[in-house]
Specification:
By secondary structure, this protein is an alpha/beta fold. Helices cover 48% and strands 14% of the residues. Helix 4 packs across helix 5, helix 4 runs antiparallel to helix 7 and helix 5 crosses helix 6. The radius of gyration is 16 Å and the shape is globular. It holds the Pfam family Hydrolase_4.
Length: 235
C-alpha cells in the first residue's frame, strides 16, 4: 500500500473526525491521507475545484453524504486523476423541494440558536437504532457540528440545494468503486445507493445491516476494509 494517496471528503456538518478511524488505519499502512476543505465554499463545484487544486496528481477518493456529492463532481471535472472511488451513504440525485425547505429551516435554527441545536435536531436521523443509544456518538456529532459552525453550515446547505443531477455521469465512471449504505439510514434512502451502484460499470455495493447514516462511525471496520481493498489494488 506504499505511496498510495487517499482524499477524504467530509459530509454536511462534518470534519476530518468523520474519517478518524479510517485515516488512522490506512496511515499505519503507509497510505498518505488528505482531507478536503468543505467549509469554505457555497457550491459543490467550488468544493470539488478546491479539492482538485489541493489534491495529489492521482488519488483514491472517498466521500460520505455531501462528501459523495463533491466526489462525484470531482469525477465529472477531472476523472483521469481518480484511481478508485468510495461513496458512502450518498446519492446522485438533486435536492427535492421538500428537502430544500427543511435545509433552509435548519439554517435559520443554526443562526438563531447555534449549530449545536441543529446537531441535536438531526441526531435521531444520523444513527441507526443501536447507535442512537450511545451518548458518546451523540457527543462527538455535536462537537463536530460546533467545529463547522453556523456560517459554514449555511454555505454547505446552499451547496447541497444547488447541486447538479449526476445520474447521467454514473455510467461513465470507469474506476473501481465501493458503494456502502446502511439499512437504517434515515437521511439518504439506501435504495438510492443501490440504484447508483447498478448504474456504474465497476461498482461493488455493500448494504450494512442496522447501520445509519454515519457509516464510518457506526461500521468503521467495514468502511476501512472497503477502502483498504480499493487502495491495495494499486500496490
Amino acid at each position: 500500500m506504499k505511496n498510495r494517496q487517499i482524499v477524504f471528503v467530509p459530509g454536511l456538518l462534518c470534519t476530518r473526525a468523520l474519517y478518524a478511524a479510517q485515516i488512522e488505519a490506512l496511515a499505519a499502512l503507509d497510505a498518505s491521507c488528505h482531507v478536503a476543505d468543505t467549509l469554505s465554499d457555497a457550491s459543490i463545484t467550488a468544493m470539488a475545484e478546491r479539492l482538485l487544486a489541493e489534491a495529489p496528481a492521482e488519488f483514491v477518493l472517498c466521500g460520505l453524504s455531501m462528501g459523495g456529492y463533491v466526489a462525484l463532481e470531482a469525477m465529472r471535472l477531472e476523472p483521469q486523476r481518480v484511481q478508485a472511488l468510495a461513496l458512502m451513504a450518498t446519492s446522485p440525485w438533486p435536492d427535492t423541494p421538500a428537502a430544500t425547505e427543511r435545509r433552509r429551516r435548519l439554517v435559520e435554527v443554526a443562526r438563531e440558536r447555534g449549530v449545536a441545536a441543529v446537531a441535536a435536531v438531526i441526531a435521531e436521523k444520523l444513527f441507526g437504532p443501536k447507535a442512537r443509544q450511545d451518548p458518546d456518538l451523540r457527543r462527538r456529532s455535536v462537537a463536530m457540528a460546533e467545529a463547522v459552525g453556523a456560517e459554514a453550515f449555511a454555505r454547505q446547505q446552499q451547496a447541497i440545494i444547488d447541486r447538479r443531477d449526476k445520474t447521467a455521469l454514473l455510467p461513465r465512471i470507469a474506476v473501481p468503486t465501493a458503494i456502502l449504505a446502511g439499512t437504517a439510514d434515515e437521511v439518504i434512502d439506501p435504495a438510492a445507493s443501490r440504484a447508483m451502484a447498478a448504474a456504474m460499470p465497476q461498482a461493488e455495493f455493500q448494504m450494512i445491516e442496522g447501520i445509519g447514516h454515519l457509516v464510518t462511525w457506526e461500521a468503521p471496520e467495514v468502511a476501512t476494509g472497503a477502502l483498504r481493498r480499493l487502495v491495495s489494488a494499486f500496490e
